[in-house]
Design brief:
By secondary structure, this protein is mostly beta strands. The chain has one domain: Lipocalin (Beta Barrel), CATH 2.40.128. Helix content is about 5%, strand content about 70%. The strands form two sheets. A ten-stranded antiparallel barrel has the order 1-4-5-9-10-11-12-13-14-15. A two-stranded antiparallel ribbon has the order 7-8. Strand 10 and strand 11 form a beta hairpin.
Length: about 250
């Protein structure tokens, strides 16, 4: 109920701003922009084994009950040329869960006994710097491709039975950045945008599909769906997760 009220208030507030703005055919080719995104994130799967080769394999969605959560993302960028854009992104994320398992749980050097009531915290904060080149910059179709430097600040904590164990990991991840946008009416666009990469040690995908509404040069509103999926498999950590986002976004152009 809280999530629905939160999303409804954002949508209504933004629509009030847009109703008095005249229609526009295309975005500005240069200048700053700031983007705010919010909504609800729902866990799909989250499989964990720490250490990656000796710990107990368990699921934060099957063996635990991990709730959906509100989220926010902040992004700022500068389009300094009709074909070149740089962006920075801050995307915090935390999910909490509860559960008990019918097997001894060996996690990060501690063993939790069978049927011990447990609490979990899954954290995955992301900091990114991206550059994107406009391969095509038409009035109806835009295609962009570039690179993203991502800093991953991740952590998993399990507590219960007077024990607490936390595994944290901060690392650098290079990603490909892409954009595909089709303007199918003077005020509506279909947007596919994201960062993704894959390697033998793991993979990462963060992709949104949204409908963008823009009646003026200064503001744009979007609603859509985002998928965040990936993980790592090595001797220190095994963790693969899939998260589903329902989002509302607002972009301001300067």
């Amino acid at each position: 109920m809280m999530t629905r009220k939160f999303l409804r208030s954002i949508v209504l507030t933004v629509l009030v701003v847009f109703v008095s703005v005249p229609a526009v055919q295309a975005q500005s080719t240069r200048g700053w922009f700031v983007d705010f995104e919010a909504g609800s994130v729902f866990p799909g799967y989250c499989d964990v084994r720490i250490p990656g080769d000796t710990g107990t394999l368990f699921s934060l969605t099957d063996d635990f009950s991990t709730s959906s959560s509100l989220f926010v993302r902040l992004r700022a960028g500068f389009r300094f040329h009709p074909r070149h854009t740089v962006m920075v992104l801050f995307a915090p994320l935390a999910l909490v869960g509860v559960g008990r398992v019918d097997f001894p749980l060996d996690f990060n050097g501690l063993t939790f006994a069978v049927n011990t009531p447990l609490d979990s915290v899954y954290r995955f904060n992301s900091y990114r710097l991206s550059w994107r080149y406009g391969i095509r910059e038409g009035k109806r179709l835009r295609i962009g491709l570039g690179l993203t430097a991502k800093i991953r600040d991740a952590g998993i904590e399990i507590s219960g039975g007077d024990k607490t164990s936390q595994n944290t990991n901060v690392g650098f991840v290079p990603l490909l950045s892409f954009l595909l946008e089709w303007r199918f009416s003077p005020v509506l666009r279909l947007l596919l945008e994201g960062d993704a990469a894959a390697a033998p040690q793991g993979r990462a995908e963060d992709v949104q599909l949204a409908v963008v509404y823009q009646k003026g040069e200064k503001w744009a509103l979007r609603v859509g769906y985002r998928i965040l999926e990936g993980g790592a498999d090595n001797d220190r950590v095994y963790n693969f997760a899939l998260l589903n986002y329902v989002l509302v976004g607002v972009t301001a152009y300067f």
